[in-house]
Design a protein that fits this description.
Number of strands: 11
Structural class: alpha+beta
Helix content: 10-25%
Mean pLDDT: 83
Strand content: 35-45%
Radius of gyration: 26 Å
Shape: elongated
Distance between the termini: 86 Å
C-alpha cells in the first residue's frame, strides 16, 4: 500500500509540472532597510519567477504605516512596454496602483524578462519607528488576460535617529599598535 501511494504521488508530481522554483513572487527590494529620519526611503517592488509566462496587467495595493512614512512618488518599470498606468493613495497608509500593457502578447512574451522591477516607490520619513510594507494583489494577469497566482513577500523600513554612534577603535588596540611600531623601529635602529 505504501508503494502504491508513493507511485501515485510521483506520477502526479511528474505530470503536474509544478515545482517550488516555478512560483511567481512579488516582494520588496531591499526587503529591510534603515533610513535616517528626514531622508527619503526608496524601495523597488520586484516580481520574479515568470518562466514561460509574461505579465500583461496588474492591480496592486501597497500598505505602510502612515505614522512613520508618507507616500512621495512612484515610477513604473519598463517591462510592460507601452502601457496605461495609474496610482492613487486611497487613504494614508494604502497606495493603489495598476498598469495595463498595450503591447501584443507576442511582444510581451518575447521581450519581457523572467524577473523585473514593477515599480520604484519613494517615501518621506515622518517619525522614528518601523513601518511594515505589505503588498496585496487585486489582479495579476498574463499577456492574454488570464489570471496569474503569485506569492507576496513583505518588507520593513525602520526610521532611525540621525545620531547614529560612530564606532571608535579601542584604546588598547591603538596602544598595542603604537608599542609594536616603537619596538619595530628600535629593533631596526639596533641593527
Amino acid at each position: 500500500m505504501k508503494r502504491f501511494v508513493l507511485c501515485i504521488a510521483l506520477i502526479i508530481s511528474i505530470f503536474s509540472g509544478y515545482s517550488e522554483s516555478d512560483a511567481i513572487s512579488i516582494g520588496f527590494v531591499p526587503a529591510d532597510q534603515d533610513v535616517i529620519l528626514g531622508n527619503v526611503a526608496n524601495v523597488d517592488l520586484f516580481i520574479s519567477g515568470l518562466t514561460d509566462v509574461s505579465v500583461g496587467a496588474y492591480d496592486l495595493d501597497i500598505h505602510y504605516n502612515p505614522a512613520v512614512l508618507s507616500f512621495n512618488s512612484i515610477s513604473f518599470g519598463p517591462a510592460l512596454g507601452f502601457s496605461i498606468s495609474f496610482f492613487d493613495e486611497v487613504i494614508p497608509g494604502s497606495l493603489n496602483f495598476f498598469e495595463f500593457s498595450l503591447e501584443s502578447p507576442t511582444d510581451l512574451n518575447d521581450g519581457q524578462p523572467d524577473n523585473f522591477v514593477i515599480a520604484s516607490l519613494s517615501f518621506n520619513t515622518l517619525a522614528l519607528g518601523i513601518s511594515p510594507l505589505g503588498v496585496s494583489i487585486i489582479d495579476l494577469g498574463d499577456a492574454y488576460g488570464e489570471g496569474l497566482l503569485a506569492d507576496t513577500r513583505s518588507g520593513n523600513i525602520e526610521v532611525v535617529s540621525g545620531n547614529v554612534p560612530i564606532p571608535e577603535p579601542s584604546t588598547i588596540l591603538l596602544s598595542g599598535i603604537g608599542l609594536a611600531g616603537l619596538g619595530f623601529f628600535r629593533r631596526k635602529k639596533d641593527r
